[in-house]
From TrEMBL, chains A, B, C:
Protein name stated in the entry: Aromatic ring-hydroxylating dioxygenase subunit alpha
Lineage: Bacteria, Bacillati, Actinomycetota, Actinomycetes, Micrococcales
Native source organism of the sequence: Leekyejoonella antrihumi
Record Pfam families: Rieske (PF00355), VanA_C (PF19112)
Keywords: 2Fe-2S, Dioxygenase, Iron, Iron-sulfur, Metal-binding, Oxidoreductase
Keyword hit for Magnesium: no
Domain Rieske residue range list: 9-110
GO MF term (any one): metal ion binding
PROSITE patterns: RIESKE (PS51296)
Record InterPro entries: Cholesterol_7-desaturase, Rieske_2Fe-2S, Rieske_2Fe-2S_sf, VanA_C_cat
Length: 355, 355, 355
């Protein structure tokens, strides 16, 4: 039983990944073939020919049609079959499902569920990813673990101290208590940890040039199921925002994750790091990309191990949760609510989409 | 649940594969050990010692007996135990099942089912494989896919255009309609595609020396479950057989496949190419062997992918079939009939065997 | 369903394997983390943090506490949690199970079952392993087979002739009948094979220097489930023990196996060879270590194959057992008795432990 809601928006790819070539990716157990038309639109079809289910991603793109690599069934960007081998008549049922796509903030969002319900959920925003005021580095690591383990991981940053020591972890992260808030209506979870006098980990020391102790604020904003924002504020100790809210002397890093289930036991772990300083400094870009990728891979190694443990548990295992898990537990609750809503009949009055 | 009938003849090996050495091969889920006696007969026993089921194929052949490599239980070519360790008395039940073997047309056929029912089915013939009027190249590729996917593949050659372009495929194959006939009594399926003005693919251009367009006739004769014959006639366009049926100016290639299930998800894909021209030309032999092996491996790659797709389908998937699938659908029907007959009680009056 | 009794003693490791470092090993399906305290005691805890079940073996040992590598939960050698991240209060239920350990005869024995039942079974002795009168070589090979296949293997040494020819096997082993006795009260199985005029296999010829034929006595003593002792006496043919029981002219080799289930399909195959001659001869030590390891690996290869066969058997397979299997069948019976006793309620009157 999948533990995700199909009736939600998920990040399928970075915009830059999709060109006029066939691209295969499985999202929420659904095999997709994606490509960008000559007109610039992103198309997502089920990656199965209707005839003998050969993967269309192993086929050929001719103009804006896909010609199946097995027997030549030809589909347009709506999934409608235009040609079949050895006969003129095209069967009426020869149609490959097409999925709704929205491109926004440099991300390709897909609606895997019922097409007529895609206005039931808003697509959350991450404007830093596509703004001239920020420089962004990014990557995607395949995770052989269920997406809930990554949600757990990101909602509780106390693990930075132990798993990411020498990169982004310092003792203060695990020591400092968190505050957690849940906006039940909007379905957003906020977890904050403000360290006002902390060691500066290499990730920030090298990128900002700060040499002493820092005020380090971590403000998480999780939009289940897919988008995770970590607003990170770094400044020398004592350097607070002005009373009017301006904060010109601090360094701001927007760490963004898109958490997209691939299968019940694997996840696409998209990570992005946007900064509002040293915008043109390639050394800082390279350093942050390399350093953050190392950190993500440390998580991947740990979560891959946890997946085998969770999968192999003999019976229903009893975890122990403490204060640091408040955000993660809230996330589980909201994800469950989304699943139940997704499986239920469509809502009579739909929410307003951002599109 | 296996989808094959045990009470049918299957090709276990090429005759040339079996010598006075122990040879392991699994046929229809049944592990066999094969060897050729000093007298020249092929023996097939279950590949399990009766004592602790050690594979006999990992044992030693001493004269015409197998001595188990674990504790020395010794078996003759009927599977009868002749010796056991530490005692003189041989238990009466110490007997390894032996399977009925027929060698014919350079193939080793085995009857996996009930030994007393082996006359219920005829062994189909492929005389070109062992005739001085033909030169044969052959091979066997392991396929990690259920045998039905290979049957589907071979019964619908329109895929040559898309999967084997540049080898045996040209546009005319997919464009030209087929005619299909089923001999219900004999249980044979005939699929024909006569292209009277077609491009000559490299496979035939290089081997026959024809430089222009050709008449290309494909006459399939499938004897379920195992033997597939493709009578291929190649001649310059307009060059038809004489009224009396002689056809001396054409090139004839007999493409033969033996489709033998190994397990529910793997198949022995035996392929043979017999020709009635350039009999002693080693270059043509090498070219056809290399070219056909490449084509078979293209199928193997595609079918291995399809197997993972079919195996992973969430529910009963609905395929779409069109005219080109008439032969394949008939094959499924005859295979199902064979399974049901094989599982039913033996027929009171048996068919005449070719043996 | 595991086929072992949890309420028995098993060898978890050699004493020499456990130092002041975290060491992971799964015993009877139970993942353990082991280490030796600064005081010299061996500790065994369940290899799972109570919080999010991260393996403690991938964590850090600080003095005699384990600090979880994910979020820093800290445990003492009893499994009691001493610290948790972000808060002072330690939840009362934060405790990792600790397992009872006894070190004896250079072996680390663990009680996997109910802690209050560890006096229901005696730990059998193997004093040669830790005696100045013997020199010992040893090793451990991972076996991808259920432990019962190794019990079968070791209780019936007639396989030495076929699987270990050229190492420890000669024709006489398979030819010579055995005698088997079972001490039902103590739960010990004795299998003896006295060959009074046998070829001397390389294993003994090279290590003892005997060049002619030998008297070779094999006296097996199996203490289910874990400890297997083979008392091997080697002497020139005709050279018998004195009437008073002294046996100074013979060579004695104590071959010891500890058979510890890892999972239902894998086993820790601990092997030890103790000798009472050439005590300081490094060449003999090296030879015996290398030769016995080769023999063990021959078994591993064979049993790994058998595991795939046994696991893949279609239905309940009927083995054939003969005289040589008397010891193995008795072992199966005693192991079954232990399982049933282990699952039953604890005995009201406990046996006396050797501890």
């Amino acid at each position: 039983m999948p533990t995700w809601s199909r009736n939600q928006w998920y990040v399928a790819a970075y915009s830059a990944e999709i060109s006029h070539e066939l691209f295969a990716r499985t999202i929420c157990g659904e095999p997709l073939v994606l490509y960008r038309t000559t007109g610039g639109d992103v198309v997502a079809l089920e990656d199965r020919c209707v005839h003998r289910r050969y993967p269309l991603s192993k086929s050929h793109l001719i103009d804006d049609t896909i010609v199946c690599g097995y027997h030549g069934f030809t589909y347009d960007q709506c999934g409608t079959c235009l040609a079949a081998p050895g006969q003129k008549r095209i069967p009426r049922t020869a149609r490959v499902p097409a999925f709704t796509i929205v491109e926004q903030d440099s991300l390709v969002w897909v609606w895997i569920g019922d097409n007529d319900r895609s206005d039931e959920a808003l697509i959350p925003r991450a404007p830093w990813l596509d703004s001239p005021e920020y420089t962004v580095v990014r990557g995607m690591e395949p995770l052989q673990a269920r997406y809930e383990l990554l949600v757990d991981n990101l909602l509780d940053l106390s693990h930075e101290t132990y798993l990411h020591g020498g990169y982004i972890g310092t003792p203060e992260v695990a020591q400092t208590p968190i505050t957690t808030e849940v906006d039940e209506d909007a379905g957003v979870i906020y977890v904050s940890r403000h360290m006002d006098d902390a060691a500066c980990p290499p990730f920030y020391a090298e990128s900002t040039g700060i040499t002493g102790r820092i005020a380090r604020w971590q403000d998480i904003e999780y939009h289940p199921p897919c988008l995770y924002l970590l607003h990170s504020r770094i400044a020398p100790t004592g350097d607070l925002p002005a009373d009017d809210g301006t904060d010109d002397h601090a360094f701001h890093v927007e760490v963004v994750y898109a958490i997209t289930p691939e299968t019940e036991h694997s996840t696409h772990d998209f990570w992005m790091v946007a900064r509002d300083f040293a915008l043109a400094d390639q050394h800082v870009s390279d350093f942050l990309a390399e350093n953050n990728r190392t950190v993500v891979l440390q998580d991947v190694v740990a979560l891959d191990v946890l997946e085998t443990i969770v999968e192999g548990e003999k019976e229903h295992y009893q975890e122990l949760s403490i204060n640091i898990d408040t955000g993660g537990l809230a996330a589980r609750r909201l994800l469950k609510r989304q699943r139940e809503a997704g499986e239920a009949a469509p809502e009579p009055t739909a929410a307003t989409s951002t599109r």
